[in-house]
Amino acid sequence: QVQLVESGGGLVQAGGSLTLSCAASRRTASYYAMGWFRQAPGKEREFVAAVDWNDGITHYADSVQGRFTLSRDVAKNTIYLRMNSLKPEDTAIYYCAAVERSVSTVAPAYDYWGQGTQVTVSS
What we know:
Layout: E1 4-7, E2 10-13, E3 18-24, E4 33-39, E5 46-52, E6 58-60, E7 68-73, E8 78-83, E9 92-99, E10 112-113, E11 117-122
Parallel strand pairs: 2-11
Antiparallel strand pairs: 1-3, 3-8, 4-5, 4-9, 5-6, 7-8, 9-10, 9-11
């Protein structure tokens, strides 16, 4: 079992920045990926970004491409999501997730989930 612990959410004005972090208790498989999803009230959970742990290749949703940057610290089993130029429509609960297979943009593919951290962007 893997525990994912997120931190870094909060309230920010539009145009501002936040950095989320997610620490995994351990890495359980040789092929592994971690990522972020978000869910706004009344909406489905949607993909934000993910990273292939082996080669560091990152994937982004079109809605955040160019504004968000996902990075990883292999030694710490931790990922970071730097969010710049935040918009009110970025307001959501952000969830960290890990999958013991190839990287995916689909939520059901992920094996482990964090508890979520609220990000609120005011206009």
